[in-house]
């Protein structure tokens, strides 16, 4: 074949290939392009970044350490323990007495045999220990603990103020027994020092309250006396049935009693030596006992 003819054939083939390529390109663009291919993800040797959390902040106390809480006997003592960021830890209360260590509460549970002790949680973070009707024996050092390692400890000292209380006769002498003759006026003074801020002074006889009752001749007068309180109990025209135990109290934990004897018959004559209107024999116990014995014999014989 002549060279000229070969060139013509090659040119026609190339022209035909170009035409097919252009046709295919038009179809692709007319259809919106090639469909995306699903390819395997690229494999990389780089490590993904590691996110490390910062160490947890441990729980801590909020408030004063080694604080002192003072309450009056008979009131409710409240020992606060504010804990921040408690997390999964536990709060407990304990009392130290000398070398002894007594657990009171763990979490919300109380482990004390005295039901006056309770855990009163106040949202959001006050694990408060309450002691109802506080007494002198409740005084001491208390510890609020968080169960970390080692434990975190906050100490609170509880001081219980107990007023002094006594019953006096009309002469101002403290008495535990008082003697009166029939138809005389029983006069007893109860003195409480210092004055309890939340507890009124009350009189009772064998657990029955005594208040002013004019029809029975009973009068109760209470007033301030310096830093304390004075409460007078008067019983006019006393009779034998007025004998008994009389109690003066300033709350459940502060009280004192006196035994009153109202004597009749010949025993009244033995009381004439007294210079007081009430006719007490507290200054002469032996004579009082003789008078009481004589009265008993007279009542037994009648």
UniProtKB/TrEMBL annotation:
GO CC, one annotated term: neuron projection membrane
Keyword Transmembrane: yes
Any Pfam family matching the protein: I-set
Keywords: Membrane, Transmembrane, Transmembrane helix
Domain of life: Eukaryota
Organism ancestry: Eukaryota, Metazoa, Ecdysozoa, Arthropoda, Crustacea
Any coiled-coil regions, as ranges: none
Gene Ontology process terms (BP): synapse organization
Ranges of residues in domain Ig-like: 55-161, 163-259
Cross-referenced InterPro entries: Ig-like_dom, Ig-like_dom_sf, Ig-like_fold, Ig_I-set, Ig_sub, Ig_sub2, Zig-8
Official protein name in the record: Ig-like domain-containing protein
Record-linked PROSITE patterns: IG_LIKE
Record field: transmembrane: 21-38
CDD domains per record: Ig
